[in-house]
Amino acid sequence: MDKPNKQNGLVQMDAALAGPLFMLSAALLFTLLNVIIKTLNPVFTVWHIGFFRFFGGLVMILVIFGRHHNPFVGNNTRLLIIRGCVGSVAFISLITALKMLPLSTALVIFYSFPAFSAVFAYIIYGEKIGKFEIACIILVMVGVGALFDFRLGGTFLGQAMALFGALFAGLTVTLIRSLREKNGPVIIYLYFCTMGSLVTAPKFILTPMLPGSPLEWVMVLGIVFTSLTAQLLMNQGFFYCKGWEGGVFMSSEVIFTGIVGIVFLGDPVTLRFWVGGILIFGSVVALNRLKAQPKKGI
Questions:
Q1: Which residue segment(s) compose the domain that 218 sits in?
Q2: What is the sign, positive or negative, of the torsion defined by CA atoms of 226, 231, 232, 236?
Q3: Is-contact 144 251, C-beta < 8 A?
Q4: In angstroms, rounded to a whole number, what is the distance separating the alpha carbons of residues 243 and 241?
Q5: How many domains does the chain have?
Q6: DSSP string for 46-112
Q7: Is the CB of residue 23 less than 8 Å from the CB of residue 237?
Q8: What distances in angstroms separate CA 87 from CA 13, 19, 130, one per listed residue?
Q9: Is residue 297 included in any domain, yes or no?
Q10: CB 77 within 8 A of CB 213
């Protein structure tokens, strides 16, 4: 049940409900983001797409939240910058993979990031993960593979970039855990966009390119708005769950991707879709039920 906050009179959401709710909403928007990027005119490079996302997000944050105070004032600026750099590398790696690989292949490899997050949580925080949680992570990875028939197409470089993105995404969501203790989702995303803009701006300036048609403008604005909303939802979700837990919840993105393929691209509804979807969804539900159980001794 939701609990009232006596200090501010607001209602605090139960972590067992809030975490999955924020993460599933973010996953749905990230699915839309992936589809837009995959269908955008291929003349736009990884650096163009990255700059559109980062600089567009930076401008939006400053316009909305920077009118009455300095939005860059936060806690642990050094870690905010590090998270921004790490997250930028993860995004650029994933976009590179999406440009070089089939969407399904890129996601199969990228969604190994909950496992990397669990490893980083152990290295950085000494956090041990129980057998049940490990089983959930494994089942999610098996489910992703089953949903896409375990087929890895494309080049080795593309597959390596997807794995590289997964590695840095695992580190990113682990670092968000520390930042969310004293920083809101907006400032975390602001530093992410700032560092990403600095990384992508040189390449963009060397070969500048703007949308050349109304449809391309709509798609670029779609990249900005979907990524902004999805990232804020995800950052807020990490207030209620650990990095690797959020990764398990976010794996629902591949189910949404499969549904998009079936509904809009005419993909067949196969047994592997149901098996993969059930494994992923079942793992999410099982993990959520575990979080909802009261801790012993409290």
A1: 25-292
A2: positive
A3: yes
A4: 7
A5: 1
A6: HHHHHHHHHHHHHHHHHHHHSSSS-TT--S-HHHHHHHHHHHHHHHHHHHHHHHHS-HHHHHHHHTT
A7: yes
A8: 27, 20, 27
A9: no
A10: no
Query: Quick check: is 2 in a domain?
Result: no
- DSSP-derived letter for residue 295 is P
User: Does the residue 199 lie in any domain?
Assistant: yes
Closest by alpha carbon to 106, among 47, 54, 169? 169
Residues 6+ apart with CB under 8 A from 286: 132, 136
Q: Which of 170, 204, 162, 208 is nearest to 54 (CA)?
A: 204
Number of continuous H segments (helices) and E segments (strands) in the chain = 12, 2
Other Cβ atoms closer than 10 A to 156: 9
Domain annotation covers residue 215: yes
Q: Over its length of 298 residues, how does the chain's per-residue pLDDT go in tens digits?
A: 444 444 343 345 666 678 788 988 999 999 899 889 888 988 999 999 999 999 999 999 999 887 778 888 889 999 999 999 999 999 999 999 888 887 777 877 888 888 888 888 888 888 777 777 788 788 887 877 777 665 666 677 888 898 899 999 989 988 987 888 888 889 999 999 999 999 999 999 999 999 999 999 999 999 999 999 999 998 888 888 777 777 778 888 878 877 887 777 676 777 777 887 788 778 777 766 665 565 444 3
Amino acid at site 221? L
Segment (H or E) for 129: none
